Amino acid sequence: MLSDSFRVETIDAPDDLDAATAALVLANVEDPVVRWIFDTPLRMMTYATQLFRVLVANAFAAAALQRTDDGLAVACWRPPGVHHDDGAIAAILQQGCAPEKLEALGGVIAELERYEPQGPFWYLSALGVDPIGQHRGRGALLLQARLAQCDAAHLPAYLWSSNERNVPFYERHGFEVQTMLRVSTCPPMIPMVRRAR
């Protein structure tokens, strides 16, 4: 399939949240930071699933959860001015991450917040494509759909990449690397900003 045969749709039915969560879990099975945090198969399937469910639910509540019409690619966004209670995410990380890694993880998360744009911006909390649908334009289509909205409103977008392999993909869409954060044994976390246009 070519990318122009997919359509982007906003998920507006609660029944679709489980499918969106599953797509993101599959997309992140080999993500270096996700697997560093959830470092056993049981932790990955238990706690990563819970984490992505919260991100999906947050984006859904903000009417900013998108997918391709075949359900293989999902994007979770936080619109400007929307704030979520991060308590659920903190609890999942506390339970699912090995205790000896928690301090390093907290340090990285605190550092990431320093790179957020000033003023209103769109935040991409998760973008993933089920491995059976990767490298066919689904992720790019989802990203382009929201970035067109950012451009129309002259707003920046922010994300952090937990996988160095994805940096060139985001750079092709106008994101710029702010820094490469390395704390303890945690793989690099890479905050990226796409400036307002």
So, the CATH homologous superfamily? Gcn5-related N-acetyltransferase (GNAT)
* SSE sequence, one letter per element: EHHHEEHHEHEHEE
- The fold-level CATH name is Aminopeptidase
Termini gap: 31 Å
Characteristic key phrases:
197 residues; alpha+beta; seven-stranded mixed sheet; globular
Could you walk me through the main structural features you see in this protein, from its secondary elements to its overall organization?
With 197 residues, the protein is an alpha+beta fold. The protein is built from 7 helices and 7 strands; from the N terminus they run βαααββααβαβαββ. It has one domain (3-194): Gcn5-related N-acetyltransferase (GNAT) (Aminopeptidase), CATH 3.40.630. Helices cover 41% and strands 17% of the residues. Strands 1-2-3-4-5-7-6 form a 7-stranded mixed sheet, with helices on both faces. Strand 2 and strand 3 (73-78) form a beta hairpin. The longest helix is centred in the N-terminal third of the chain and has 21 residues, at 41-61. The protein starts with 7 loop residues before the first strand and ends with a strand.
Structure summary:
By secondary structure, the chain is α+β, with helices and mostly antiparallel strands. It is built from 7 helices and 7 strands.
Write the layout of secondary structure elements.
Layout: E1 8-10, H1 17-27, H2 32-37, H3 41-61, E2 65-68, E3 73-78, H4 87-96, H5 102-113, E4 122-129, H6 138-152, E5 157-161, H7 167-172, E6 176-177, E7 190-194
Parallel strand pairs: 4-5
Antiparallel strand pairs: 1-2, 2-3, 3-4, 5-7, 6-7
